[in-house]
Specification:
alpha+beta, six-stranded mixed β-sheet
Length: 126
């Protein structure tokens, strides 16, 4: 079964975001996110709300990331999209670590925007 056009558009947004992370491109990482984005992360603080907090989490990541291939590779990404809401689930390879990823997106003025992001390590309690 072929992906619907919304699923293809969402997949492109997620792929662009992951490429920006690998490139260390902060503007690209922030693009496609709502101003009130909510992220649950694997490092403290575990909850980031809004663009300022979201940016701080990525600044911390970039301090330790080598960048390039293997630094933030998506795999097993599944995309489910309706007309104005979508979600994705998959895994991220971060050098030698594996992290779960869940994203919630909404369409804002005909543009898919990431509104919710959740990263977690398999085997994590809670």
């Amino acid at each position: 079964m072929a992906e619907n056009p919304n699923e293809s558009q969402v997949r492109s947004v997620v792929d662009e975001w992951a490429s920006a992370v690998r490139a260390g491109d902060m503007d690209g990482v922030l693009d496609h996110h709502t101003d009130d984005v909510l992220m649950y992360d694997v490092v403290a603080p575990p909850r980031a709300r809004g663009m300022d907090d979201y940016r701080k989490q990525w600044e911390l990541f970039f301090e330790y990331s080598p960048g390039g291939d293997g630094s933030f590779d998506l795999y097993d990404l599944e995309v489910f999209a309706g007309e104005d809401v979508a979600w994705c689930q998959g895994m991220i390879a971060i050098v030698d670590l594996r992290c779960r990823l869940t994203l919630g997106l909404r369409k804002v003025e005909d543009r898919w925007m990431i509104a919710h992001e959740h990263h977690s390590f398999p085997g994590e309690a809670g």
